[in-house]
Amino acid sequence: MLEVNEDRLVSRFLELIKINSETRHEALIQEYLKKEFSLLGLTVEEDQTSGETGFGANNLICTLNGNPEIEPFFFSCHMDTVAPGNEIKPVIKDKTIYSDGTTILGADDKAGIAIMFEIIHLLKERKLAHGTIEFIISVGEESGLVGANAFDVQQLSSSFGFVLDTGGPVGSITVGSPTQYRIEAILTGVTAHAGVAPEKGVSAAQIAASAIHQMKLGRIDAETTANIGFINGGVATNIVMDRLEIIAEARSVNADSCEAQVAHMIETFERVATEMGGKAAVITEKKYNGYRFTPETNVVKIAAKALTNIGIKPNYQVSGGGSDANVFNGKGKETTNLAIGYEKIHTVHEYLPIAEFTKAAAMAYQIVEEITLN
After folding, report:
1. What pLDDT, on a 0 to 100 scale, did the predictor assign at position 1?
2. Nearest-CA neighbor of 105 among 342, 322, 337?
3. Is residue 108 marked as binding?
4. Under a CB-based contact definition with an 8 Å cutoff, are residues 262 and 270 in contact?
5. Which residue from 24, 336, 359, 369 has the highest number of Cβ atoms inside 10 Å of its Cβ?
6. What is the structure's pLDDT at 37?
7. What are the pLDDT digits (tens) for 279-321?
8. Closest Cα to residue 23, out of 149, 112, 108, 113?
């Protein structure tokens, strides 16, 4: 396997996670990244989308120019983290990196950014005559892929790329990821005094309860899920609730199944509300498109060959979650998402085995070599 500079890789990661960058507050990490990529000789550009997104920084495109005869491609990561992600204090034990248990670790996705830096160092040291590589680092991924959604892919020279943002052992290649919809239902009943004349009221809470009871939720089939995530309503216990808001989601790797589930949820809210003497206003929003690849899809073939070349068997996975790869695919840039070793993300128990981390860096470098030489 390629000799990755483990000390350099880990040192960079530890430096990155000590920079506060909870989602919406990415300004500090953005400034660090602009400086460090520039020092390595890359052209660094901001996309000026912070005015649109309301987030603390812009997406970055850092370009490592190369041989114009070789097809350009991109790597992508995100610079934000979930909370609690400030003042992270890393602990290394048994060749694994943890936080001190009061915060997340931030390997999602600063491990990916550290790998980007290591790729650049390795390319310079090994003097590989690579093509142009674009490193995209987004904001707001943890807030619903906000940065990637605002990003204009027309800025890119690349037609395909690889997101470094999946947990689990190195070797996993994401070949399927769901379409996701957000569903907001505003249920309206009739107010009345709950103690004096409850029979004159129509409870929005009862409408919601009946609709949810009749609705298909949870695991719908092997590819489709739906969930009620948020319910809010009511003013006081002595008032029949006349307004209640529900926020839900539906997602599926099969786009038709996703559309069918959304239609079912809309129909159930509207029908039950009407039957019970109330009303339902349902608003839906597609958050991102899904994608489905085969082992013969170009980015999958490249990643699989790179893994095989470093002695790791490719593992083709269908994911139940979305990532920036969904957005890039939806905008016409063929993209897969690759596992880079971190575990138990979005919890204070998150950790990163150093052995997997170094394998991930070797895989990413091998992708560059595979594209360069073939």
Report:
1. 66
2. 342
3. yes
4. no
5. 336
6. 98
7. 999 999 999 999 999 999 999 999 999 999 999 999 999 999 9
8. 108
Enumerate the CATH 3.40.630.10 domain ranges in the chain, comma separated.
6-177+290-373
Q: Is the dihedral of CA 109, 115, 116, 118 positive or negative?
A: positive
Query: What are the two backbone dihedrals, phi and then psi, of residue 275, each rounded to the nearest 5 degrees?
Result: -60, -30
For residue 321, the one-letter residue type is: G
Instruction: Name residue 121's beta-bridge partners.
Output: none
CATH 3.30.70.360 location in the chain: 179-288
Domain 6-177+290-373 CATH class label: alpha beta
Angle between helices 107-126 and 354-373 (to 10 degrees): 50
Catalytic residue among 22, 26, 36, 141: 141
Give me the amino acid identity at 267.
E
Q: Residue 279: exposed, middle, or buried by beta-carbon count in 10 A (0-12, 13-18, 19+)?
A: middle
Active site residue 199: no
Length of the chain: 374
Give the residue ranges of the chain where pLDDT is below 70. Answer: 1
- The DSSP letter of residue 22 is B
Annotated ligand binding at 69? The verdict is no
pTM, full prediction: 0.93
Mention the CATH class of domain 179-288: alpha beta
Give the tens place of pLDDT for each residue, 214-233: 999 999 999 999 999 999 99
Q: Establish whether 165 is an annotated binding residue.
A: yes
* b/e map 111-126, b = 16+ CB within 10 Å: bbbbbbbbbbbbbeee
pLDDT value at position 2? Answer: 77
Amino acid (1-letter code) at residue 48: Q
